[in-house]
Amino acid sequence: MYLSGIGEGMLALLANKFRSSLTMLGVTIGVMAIVAVVSIGDGGKRRVLDEIEKSPSPPCSGSFPTGSMSRRWKRRTRRLSFSNTSNSSTSVK
Known about the structure:
single chain, mainly alpha, 3 helices
């Protein structure tokens, strides 16, 4: 069962040599592109980590309030009142 399928596949490859070679070329270029993108990403990550390790101060970190902390860190707002302090006696009609 499997051998007959493999045999038919080989016959199809031999019958369509140009299509088969273009397919193999496309797969090869695709794999090379993926390898290039992954290696560029890894190199960039390594470079950034090296720069962070060379810096004299530790990297900045922050925290966000969660749970009971959010009640303590609640933003306090106040109302601002603006009065009209215009001293001009002219009016616009």
